[in-house]
Amino acid sequence: MSLLHRAIHARPGELAPALAAFTLLLCLFGGYFMLRPVRESMGVAGGVENLQWLFSATFVVMLLAVPAYGWLNARVPRRIFLDCVYLFFASNLLGFAWLLWRTPDPLRAARAFYVWLSVYNLFVVSLAWSVLADVFDRRQAKRLFPSIAAGASLGGLIGPLVGGLLVSDLGTVGLLILAAILLLPTLALRRVLMDWRGSGGAGRPGAESEPPERPVPGNPFSGINQVLGSRYLLGICAFVLLLSCTSTFLYFEQARLVAALFPDSHQQVRVFALIDFTVQALSLACQLFIAGRVAQRFGVGALLAVVPLLVALGFIGLAMLPQFSVLASVMVLRRVGEYAFVRPGREMLFVPLGAPEKYRAKSFIDTVVYRGGDALSAWLNALLTGIGLAAAAVALVGAAVALAWSALGWRLGHRHEHTGSSSPAQETEP
């Protein structure tokens, strides 16, 4: 067995699909993180005091988009569903490039782009992980997902670096076109993964799984019904809500401090790009050398619980010393932990489930629930600051939320580890 096999815990026949999955995430996140600093700068341009409106608009757009996604999912075979969605979003990127080039109202276009990119990110990333949860079985996912997730971190490492270097020469329009081009290789990688699924993955002979040649059964609202009918899925919903709440509290404080310290928009793009670059570099190292070993030695619960506990300690530190350097450290800690540990662990929770849960319930949780949590957290933050609550007190509220997030993560991981071959979605306790 080669050194690379041992490094990513791959068994014979698994290296090629693992590398294909790694590269798929690399392309997706490279394009997204190239645009993320631009989005953050556009959000600041519209006024930090108005960010909660952008979060609410994103949630409303998500509510409209999820039924359309479900309708298409019920009519297009799973084997080619990713192609249809990604081609649609690539055309959207080109459309926004044209709009930002021609628009007479850059602020309105900036706000529209901010909302759209938030929707784009959740759909393309959620669908990519749905496909991976469909391709790999439970044991393969536990061994390979942390290393596969390193593709996202490498893309997140390259993306902001490229964006920061090229924004002055190409402008936002050029970055949008480049991001659209990066979506195209994912179509070929999807085919490699689905072909291998039938011979060595979750669809191999003898494995119990639905054939990918058929669409996912159900109606546009099936995902909601699946979530409401399963305590396990409701537990994942609560986990995502707590995650988004802590993220939003930190995000608002970051936006406020960056707007105060760096008034120039190009400076803001470079600051956000530097933070993204640091996060992805540390995430990549953790995914390659730490996360997989933690998952195999301590289980999924450790991936889901330890990071929120550290974030709670970070909030307490921020309450004691509310400075940009402390905030940046906590932001990096939270995001590194999410990408390297929490995200792979959260995706493992879906692997034992059926195709409807992987594509419909998961999409509902990753989009509507996540952005709903963002919107609620944004208004809660605005309420707490509006009534004059000090930043230290808001940070302590964030610490309490992070502690609840940690406890729920541990329980979900424990439930996943002890379900055996049965589907957790059929169980009565999370």
What does this structure look like?
This protein is mainly α and 430 residues long. Helix content is 82%, strand content 0%. The protein is globular and about 60 Å long. The C terminus is likely disordered. The longest helix has 34 residues. The protein contains 15 helices and no strands.
List the helices and strands and how they pair.
Elements: H1 3-8, H2 15-45, H3 51-73, H4 78-102, H5 106-135, H6 138-148, H7 150-183, H8 185-200, H9 222-228, H10 231-261, H11 265-298, H12 300-320, H13 324-348, H14 355-386, H15 391-417
Keywords: Membrane, Transmembrane, Transmembrane helix
Organism: Metapseudomonas resinovorans (Pseudomonas resinovorans)
Transmembrane segments: 12-33, 53-72, 84-101, 113-132, 144-166, 172-189, 232-252, 272-291, 298-321, 378-405
- Separation of the first and last Cα atoms: 38 Å
Structural class: mainly alpha
Low-confidence stretches: 420-430
C-alpha Rg, in Å? 20 Å
Form type: globular
Number of alpha- plus pi-helical segments:
15
Give me the strand/helix succession: HHHHHHHHHHHHHHH
Helix content: over 70%
The beta-strand count equals 0
- Sheet-strand content, in percent, reads under 5%
Mean pLDDT equals 82
The biggest beta sheet reads: none
Protein name: MFS transporter
Pfam family, one: MFS_1
Keywords: Membrane, Transmembrane, Transmembrane helix
Transmembrane segments: 12-33, 53-72, 84-101, 113-132, 144-166, 172-189, 232-252, 272-291, 298-321, 378-405
